């Protein structure tokens, strides 16, 4: 902790604050979604901007904000708005972490050959390899957004590869979260309006299960690929 300096404080905050904020957001998701929808286009802009700031500063988790996007705007608008929020949040998080970490993380990495191998794959093998590594690190559903921002900024991942890889890697799980939330909202609306033939619950449940399974498989493959890089280059 002492050797990392301000970066250690950011690491602790990025791993703790989003979980607490996510609970609060989901608790009040209905009034927040109603407010956003009530402001139409301005609400969509507010959502994307707030997503960027709150995710970039590690105040809210990305999964909860993605759910809010689907709940409020449906998949058609919620998905691109959430991706815009991710882009802004990644850019903001990169800048904050870049100034806080200095050269401390680099010094520690040189003491860990496996970590250094992953770092070298991120920053030392060209734009496309770096982009691919960033996308792989972002793919797993349990990959913490703020903490990953901190790590990749601290090791000086090229900004273009970092931002592009973030969008590619985050797209599958973001789309799944937005789609699931939009489906739940549609289901509840159908019940509230008393429609005669709402879709059976089991069909929606099976769809969610298949999505979660697919994301889990993608994340497993991504983790294996990163491990191969570390083992192959770190010894």
Structure description:
This protein is 84% helix and 0% strand. It has one domain. Mean pLDDT is 75; it is low at 191-197. It has helices at 6-27, 29-38, 40-56, 62-101, 104-109, 113-123, 127-138, 145-154, 159-193, 201-234.
Summarize the structure.
This protein has 235 residues and is mainly alpha-helical.
- Estimate percent helicity: over 70%
Number of domains: 1
Number of helices: 10
Average pLDDT, rounded to a whole number, is 75
Radius of gyration: 19 Å
Write down how many β-strands occur, each being a DSSP E stretch of 2 or more residues.
Answer: 0
Distance between the termini: 27 Å
Secondary structure topology:
Blueprint: H1 6-27, H2 29-38, H3 40-56, H4 62-101, H5 104-109, H6 113-123, H7 127-138, H8 145-154, H9 159-193, H10 201-234
Q: What attributes characterize this protein structure?
A:
single chain; mainly alpha; 10 helices; 84% helix
